[in-house]
Structures are given as structure tokens and as C-alpha cells.
Amino acid sequence: MVTINDIANLSGVSRTTVSRVLNNSGYVSESAKRKVQEIIESTGYVPSEQAKSLRTKQTKVIGVILPKISTETASRVVDGIDKKLSEHGYHILLANANLNVEKEIEHLRLLQSRRVDGIILVATNIETQLIKTIQEMNVPVVALGQEVPGISSVVYDDYHAAYDVTSLLIEKGHKRIGFIGVSETDRAVGFERKRAFLDAMKAYNLDVYSAWIQEGVFDIHSGGQAMKTILEESPQSPTAIFAVTDRLAIGAMQVIKEKNIDIPKQISVVGIGASDLSKYVSPSLTTVDYYNEKAGIETANLMIEQLVKKEEKPKKLLMSYGLILRDSLS
Amino acid sequence: MVTINDIANLSGVSRTTVSRVLNNSGYVSESAKRKVQEIIESTGYVPSEQAKSLRTKQTKVIGVILPKISTETASRVVDGIDKKLSEHGYHILLANANLNVEKEIEHLRLLQSRRVDGIILVATNIETQLIKTIQEMNVPVVALGQEVPGISSVVYDDYHAAYDVTSLLIEKGHKRIGFIGVSETDRAVGFERKRAFLDAMKAYNLDVYSAWIQEGVFDIHSGGQAMKTILEESPQSPTAIFAVTDRLAIGAMQVIKEKNIDIPKQISVVGIGASDLSKYVSPSLTTVDYYNEKAGIETANLMIEQLVKKEEKPKKLLMSYGLILRDSLS
DNA sequence: GGAACATATGGAATCGATTACATGATCAGG
DNA sequence: CCTGATCATGTAATCGATTCCATATGTTCC
Question: Which part of the chain is the HTH lacI-type domain (chains A, B) (predicted)?
Fold first, then answer.
């Protein structure tokens, strides 16, 4: 591999001069510049960012830790992050935590060893050990999806989104409403959305039956299982189902349709996420758009602010959301 | 940031010894080892891969160039790639070409400047300039999705998949078959799948009407547009539609349903891709599973072979595929 | 004509690791 | 007691860039 020294020798100048040509800095005569560029061209020399980073102390790489790569949310978010970061010449180093907290911590260390300029943590469960690790590192970290104490984060407005969805159902006249959630250890999706649901029900003085409150695990199948339980374990069926994710909602819809219960005439269903799926299932699913790509962009923005403007104080950004009314609701 | 020198000073040994402890190599006394480890622990020292790579000439990073990040195919593929690469201690540096050939070339250079150990190119259109650039670089490159001359590639069996799908329709008794493709500049999706369709029609002595051959651009909407043209521009409608991607097929289905034409009684629809969507639209879509994650794994495997076993000779791997029969076909 | 300044270039230290080589101690075997 | 392993550690070069500082040559202005 050809190095700056080769270029220097071949052009008959010092590597200092070559460096000047490369970075367009300092004084270089036109003739020297031409000569050097000519040699660079003919040798196909590409300077090593490696070596440069070692000296300049910045890699122009941002590590992105994802809970899982192949999800719609993740890919939208990464798309947004990349859009913004690439504008500023940053690259993304990907790390897949695979829903595993230990791996998340391991990746933090790994990214640190790669001397990334910053780390974006697309978070699920926030654990004390994780927070501790983050605080020990002196690399800017920005979280997306869950609030992490002490660092900048972009969070979805889970509480209000879920509250609005529930209110919507209630205002449409529903009184018997079922709920399909996920484990409350997931603070945003599990805990907050459930809290909002319960609060809204209470605000409207509606009863909540425990048999109608079920839990799934983020996939379509478990949404169906939860729905089965709701339908089978109680004498009376709810007239509406609020599932905390689109996939859970779609699983529920499948089961409802299998039982020849009409959606939305007999049971309305709503989800959260505005997945591609939600638009094309039938009936189309009423859901909430979380603007994931925008969230990615905003997260990258916070990162850039910390890197470029040396912003120290952690910021918290609350994303807005949009209700999408479709046919699964009446 | 604490360096190996700091550790050396604090532990009262040379940095050579620290390096030995770090890499578990050479001779180090138990006492020295303990001392060094203790200091490392207490300072939270993380060695710089940066500096290490500069010396050892390998970064343990693989660049992955994607035509577009937020697609189902891309995320499945990346998932597969990451699974295999992480087993071998490699990380992924992401590059988004955004369906832009110039950006693809630009990213090749950028990745080269980062001294990645290899590059995986998830390809769409192969252009001569791109091939030239690849050949000039002395970094292992593996392509996925399209065959690139001179380098290892993993390709889907577009021809046979499309031929099988067409035969399937014909054997179900369909004679009037419409086709929704994409631009033939996309060799795999555009050219090969169309060629297979035409070949199969010919083999069964079936006529192909030009009004029934339409083109879209990879999204659901354009599938619908193509379908509208097919239905409106010809006196007689086809009894089956073969769309080269699931999204095109789903767009077509939407339009067919809007016109109150029954799927599959009046028109059957098939796609390719086995997208999540295909399973949950109604009727569910008959499609072809391309095993994207597996393809990602295999691609990573080829890369590992080149890196670890120093395999020189380019290999070509043809992926298998699986027909998924669902309700959109009769 | 010399001080002050702009222009052009190179020498050498530096970033944080690895590693070839040298050196010194310890110990076993003849 | 000497020889040659084996063990333990350190010195210094190296990877490929950037950058501070020194030096040399013009150029300008009083």
C-alpha cells in the first residue's frame, strides 16, 4: 500500500509538503502542488484515515448500538442517523446488541477501543450497570428511545401517545377495552404506555378487567396469543383492543378474524408504530406514527452539537407523534 | 485518555511488558502481570485499536455498502452479515449509497481510506466505472445480489425463481398473464426476472401482450400504477399478474381490490421477496423467499475465507430460494 | 540597504500501539 | 563451574499521518 512517504519521494518533496497539499493548508508553490497531485493521481494513493486519526484524535466515526438490526424501526432510525451524520463527514460503525444488555455493555467498550468520536445508543432496557459504564467513558453518548440519566436523549412521547390512543377509543364510545402490552421492564413501551392506558381509563371512569390486560413479546405471534387469552378467558369480550405495537395489534387482528369476529364492527383494534404492515393489512390498522427517521436525525443532531459545538449540558428532546386513523377503528 | 505508556509508568514496567499482558504473549512474571492488570482495572484503560491497527495492518472492520438502508431486504442481509462477521471479531462500517452509483464509488474510496479489511457491496446496478474502481483497489471485495466480474459474489437465482413462478401460474391453468417489472438496467431484478418470464411463456407457447408488460420503480405505489395501466389499456384483463417484487405485487393487489375484482378468483397475483407484508396482506401473497439473511451470512463467509484462508480465486455462490404458496393464487 | 513580512520547504517530534532484538537473571546438566 | 536453555524485561524502530519550529528565499517599504 502506497504511503505519504512514497508520494514524497516520488515527487521529490518532503512529506510535510505532501501533507500540505492533501489538506490544502500552509504555503505550497503551484509547481510543487501540481507535481504532488500528479503522483497521487498516478499511484492511486489514498491517505490513511487510520494514521491521521491517531495524530488528530478524531476518527469521524460514530458507533451506533442497536437492540436488533432487522426491525423496521431500527432501519428507519439508522437511515435518519446516517442522513445527518454523513452531512458532517461522519461514518457509522454498527453494533448489534441483540436485545442483550451484556452485549450492549460489551459493545460500548468495543466502540471505545475503536476510539469512535461518539456513541448513539438505541436503547431498550436501561440497566444500572449500563448507566455506570456510560458515565465512566469519556465519549459523548446520546440515547434514543429511552431516557438515560446524565446524557442527552431523544425520547418518544409514549405516555401521551398511548393516552391519546386510549382516549380516542373511549370517545368513539368504547367502554370495554382490552390491552396488549409488553414486559414493564421496558420502561418506554412496557411501562409508560400501560400507565397511560390505565390513567386514561381512570380519567373516564372506566373499569379495567385484569383478564383483558395481557402481555406479549414484540412479535406478531405473541399478539395473537394474548388476544386468544382475552377472548377465551372472559365471559364477555371487549369491544376494542389497544396493542402497544403494530405487530402485537396485527397478531391480535389475525386471531379476531379467525374467529369470524368483524373488525371494526365488533372489535376495534389500534396499535403504535405506523409500520408498513399497518397500512396494508385489512382492515388497515389505526396506529401512531413515531417518526422514527426524524428521531434518528434529531439524535444525530444532538450528537453533532456535542461534537462540533462542544455542548456539555445534556439535552432531552421529546419527539412528537401523529395519530393515523384507519379502518380498524369504529 | 489513558494510554499504554500511562499504564507502563503506573505499574513500573515498560510498555512492552504491558503489551505482553494485553496480548497474553511472550514471558511475563505473575507479579508483573497482576500489577499491570490491577492498574488497567483501576484506570479503566481501553487499548486503542487505532494505534494497534496502524502497526498490525488490520482493522478488523468490514465496510458494507448498501443501496438503501431502510429496506427489509437490506436489514435482513446486514443482520446475516453481522452475525457471521461478529463471530470472527469483525465490525461493520456502514455506507449508504442511496441508489446512487457515484456515491457507491465514493464510498469505496472512503472505506479504503479507513483501511477496512474488506468491503461487502450489496449491489444494484453494476457499472463499468464501478468495476474499474474495485479492481484498482487491493482490498477484498465481495458482492451480494449481482455478479461482479473478477470478484467473489453471492447471487440470487433470479432466473430460475422467476421461471418457476411463471410456470406455477401457467400450470394452474393461467394463459393470460401480466408482468410488472422494473428497469432492465437492474440486471438481476429487472433483466433476469423478465427474461425468465418471457422464456417460460414461450416454452408453454403462450402469448405475451405488450400492454400487460409494465414497469414500476420498487415501491407499492408504482405497482398500483402499473396495474391500473394493465387494466385500463387493454380490452381483456389477464387472469394472473407476476410482479417482480412483493411491493409491486401489493400495489397491484390494492388496485385490483379497489376495482372490486376478486383475488384470486378473477386475478391471481404473485410476487418475489417473502416480505413481512406478503404474509399479512389479504389475501396473503404467494411469493418467493430469497433467504436474505442466509445470503448475508454466506457473503460474510466468502469474505472471511478471503481474509483468513487467503483464498484468492473469486468464487460465485448461487443462493437457493423457496416458493411460498398462499391465498393470492388459484 | 536593511527591517519586516510573505512565501516555500523541510526536519523531527508525536500520536499509541507492536515487535525484533538485546540483555540479564535463573537454573539444570555434565 | 561452565554452558545453554528458559524466563523476564527493556530499548528502540516502526506503522502513516500531522504539526511545530527552523530555515531560506523573495518582496516591499521606508
Answer: 2-56
Beta carbons of B95 and B110 less than 8 angstroms apart: yes
Q: Which nucleotides of D are covered by protein (CB under 7 A)?
A: 7-12, 14-20
CA nearest neighbour of A94 among A76, A126, A72, A116: A116
Q: Beta carbon of B129 within 7 Å of strand C? A: no
Summarised one tens digit per residue, pLDDT across range A236-247 is 889 999 999 999
pLDDT in tens, B25-56: 989 999 999 999 999 999 999 999 999 999 99
Please name the residue that has the C-alpha cell 435482513.
B76
A44 touches chain B (CB under 8 A): yes
Amino acid at B226: A
CA angle B133, B138, B139 (to 5 degrees): 95
Cross-strand partners of A62: A92, A118
Q: Is B157 on the interface with A (CB under 8 A)?
A: no
- How many Å does it take to go from CA B25 to C1' C23? 19
| pLDDT tens for each residue of B99-114 | 888 899 999 999 999 9
- Residue A225 and residue A302 share a domain: no
Gap from A86 CA to chain B (nearest CA, Å): 9
Looking up residue B103, the CATH number of its domain turns out to be 3.40.50.2300
Distance (Å) from the alpha carbon of B219 to chain A's nearest alpha carbon: 12
State the residue range of the domain holding A29.
Answer: 4-47
Cβ–Cβ gap B46/A112 under 8 Å: yes
How far apart (Å, rounded) are the C-alpha atoms in residues B313 and B150? 9
d(CA A132, CA A135): 5
The DSSP bridge pattern shows strands B287-289 and B322-324 to be: antiparallel
